[in-house]
Amino acid sequence: MKSKIKKFMDLVRQRNQFEPEFLQAVEEVAETVIPYIVNKEIYYGKNILLRMVEPERVIMFRVPWINDVGEIVVNRGFRIEMNSAIGPYKGGLRFHPTVNLSILKFLAFEQVFKNALTTLPMGGGKGGSDFDPKAKSDGEIMRFCQSFMGELFRHIGPNTDIPAGDIGVGGREIGYLFGMYKKLRNEFTGVLTGKGMSWGGSLIRPEATGYGTVYFAQSMLETRNDSLKGKIVTVSGSGNVAQYACEKATQLEAKVVTLSDSGGYIYDEEGIDASKLAFVMDLKNNKRARISEYIDKYPKAKYVEGKKPWGIKCDVAMPCATQNEVNKVDAKKLLANGCFLISEGANMPSDPGAVHAFQAAKILYAPGKASNAGGVATSGLEMSQNSLRIVWTREEVDERLQDIMSNIHENCIKYGKQDDGYVDYVTGANIAGFVKVADAMLAQGVV
Ligand code: NDP
Fold this sequence. Notes:
Largest sheet: 7 strands, mixed
Mean pLDDT: 97
Oligomer: single chain
CATH superfamily of the domain at 208-371: NAD(P)-binding Rossmann-like Domain
Order of helices and strands: HHHEEEHEHEHHEHEEHHEEHEHEHHHH
CATH class of the domain at 208-371: Alpha Beta
Structural class: alpha/beta
Bound molecules: NADPH dihydro-nicotinamide-adenine-dinucleotide phosphate
Number of strands: 12
Radius of gyration: 21 Å
């Protein structure tokens, strides 16, 4: 088996030599899916996985815009249209200086499996730019978004490709992107998700990824007749996903003790309750300031510069910042401190060394493609509401989100339960996602 995986990876590596994140994501899937394919007559010998790792289309374009002092700045825009076997391409846009082809291809590849897991009819895609929204004025953000959409609009549409937010792209950016799309196309459609409530958005969409990550943790705990009540939780990040993971975990009576940003982390031993979280939300979403300012308001908390929160003692950890933010050393610290559940809000936040450490320790470990699928699932619900031209209530959307997360959890168990009863959620998520997409690809022929 190892030689089959190696042969496959050698081929993928040869074609994508300078794309480490993409290769990492593919290898994790290959390690779990190839052993499954080998035993299945319908998949074996069809090069299905080889077809899946090749994007259907990669779009790369120039994004020129003018900054507040009149200089012309040039950024690079991307959209990876990875797989449309089960529905139109769907996946977020990331604006961050580290964005490149490798990162977006890894995200698009993961998205294909994640979207399949939601059971909604959505293919996978991802896009973005190396544009850095930090310290930019609203006018600069708007001009950048307009220029970005000035090219992207010809490649997307409500039945073709429906982008959403990701790192650096929230409600403000979706608004500017949508405004430009509407102007260029002269039509009001559900071409983006994460829209504002008065112009086609869905209730619960801002909360969905963070809430879903917590719902998934809850399902995992239920397999051990346990709950989040009284658990100490460490969360990384302080953006969209981290904020709502913190909110829902607190509502379920857990104590969240950390949040972070790229500068460092805060540790509040007393817990980040609803009023402290409201302060963080204002700090991050309105003032666009640093998490370090938390200790000015709450001096009993600590700020640790340049470090990640994984050395803090906890029962549950929810990495909600970015890829590869938990390495093997971090994983060992978490395990040594008694952490027994990881529910990933970010995409691929644990590197392979960390994943193997969690699996070897047989703790409850959920990969992002399963545990953070609530965001895209609720985007799918936003698309449904747009098509039907109706608005579901908060309760209706939340109930659907909880059902979807619970179904994803069941599917992970179906494909990931090992002979000794341990649930390998990585294997479960990869195979469940693969089966759905592969079956559709087989039915549609070699295209
Ligand atoms: P935001 O931009 O709202 O927040 C990102 C947070 O992560 C910020 O606190 C940011 O800090 C921190 N961060 C980003 N890059 C780094 C880095 N290199 N090192 C340390 N901290 C970093 O993004 P989201 O909350 O939307 O996304 C967070 C993660 O969740 C990403 O992996 C994303 O792909 C994933 N995700 C998001 C979904 C969504 O619906 N938004 C859906 C599914 C997954 P700073 O402000 O200092 O940069």
